[in-house]
TrEMBL record:
Keyword Transport among UniProt keywords: no
InterPro entries hit by this protein: Glyco_trans_2-like, Glycosyltransf_2, Nucleotide-diphossugar_trans
TM regions (residue ranges): 237-259, 271-290, 302-322
The organism of origin for this protein: Xylanibacter muris
The entry's keywords: Membrane, Transmembrane, Transmembrane helix
Domain of life: Bacteria
Protein name (Swiss-Prot/TrEMBL): Glycosyltransferase
Lineage of origin: Bacteria, Pseudomonadati, Bacteroidota, Bacteroidia, Bacteroidales
Domain Glycosyltransferase 2-like: 4-169
Amino acid sequence: MKYSIIVPVFNRPDEVEELLGSLTCQTFTDFEVIIVEDGSQLNCRAEADRYSDRLDIHYYMKQNSGPGQSRNYGAERACGEYLIVLDSDVVLPKGYLQAVEDELQAEPADAFGGPDRAHSSFTDTQKAISYSMTSFFTTGGIRGGKRKLDKFYPRSFNMGIRREVYMRLGGFSKMRFGEDIDFSIRIFKAGCRCRLFPKAWVWHKRRTDLRKFFRQVYNSGIARINLYKKYPESLKLVHLLPMVFTLGVIALVIVSAVGRVMMHYDDIDKWYWLCAAPWIPLLLYSLIVFVDSSFKNHSLKIGLISIAAAFVQLMGYGFGFIESWWKRCVMGRNEFQAFEKNFYS
C-alpha cells in the first residue's frame, strides 16, 4: 500500500460525503482511507459505508480528544508507506494523488504539503475567506502555495509524511492549537526533508461564515505564542504583522474619536483632519483588497466581502496573539492554564 489517507472528523458527515466522492475519482488508486470519528454526536458511518464498495475504507469511532490525537489514532492503524492527512472540509481534484506520486518519483521527501484553492461551488463568503488566507495583501502570500526561500511548513489540511518518520517522531503533540506547525518544526529538527508540492493542491472550504472564521484565526494567534514558548526561534517578523495591524487600527480609531470630540467642543475646521485623516490608510487598504479580490474572483460582491474577511483575519489573529502573549509571557501561565476554556469547551 503506497498511501494511507487519514481524515479526523467531528460532526461533519456532509463534508465527508464530498471528500469521499472526490477520492473515488482519483487517477492513482493505490491508497486506503481511514476515517477517525472524534466523538461526534452526528457521525458519518453511513457515508463511509456508502463508499465501501468503491474505496478501501476503514471507519473508527473514538472518544473526543482533538484532531491531532485522532490523526495519531489513524496512523497507528494505517498500512501505507506514506500517510496523507486531510481535513474533512477539503475536496480533491482527480489528479491530486498522481501529483503527489509524480513529485515523490522525481525527488524523494520525508514530508510534504500542498496549497489550497476555492472551488467554483463555494459560497461568496467562503471564496472571500479563501482569498484572505492566501493573498499577498493579507498573509504575504505565505499560504498561497508559492515556493519560498524559507522552509515550507505543511499544514494539516493537506499534509503528507513517510509513515516511518511519523511513528519515529510520535506524530502530533497534544497541543490544542498549532499542533500541525509543531509537528512540522519537529520534522525539520529531526533532519528530515520537507517539500512543497505545488500541483498537489486541494479545494478547502475553511469556515462558512465570518464569525467562525474569526474564532479560527483567533486560535491561530494563540497558537503562535504557544509555539514561541516551545520554539523561540520559530517566531518571525511576519508573525508580528497582524498584531501590529490590530494595534494600528485601534490607534487610528481612537485618534479619530478624539478629533470628533474636539470638533464638538472647539472650532470644527480646526479638528476636522484629526477626525478624518486616520481613516485614509484604512480606506486605502480596503480599496487595495477590494480591487485585487474582485479581479481574481471576477466578482465585485466577493471583493466587498474580502474587505471584511481581511480585517477579521488580521485582527482576529492579532487579538489572539496579544491575549496569548499577555497570559503566557507576562502572567507566566502555562498553555492549559491560560486557555482552559478554549481547550475544554
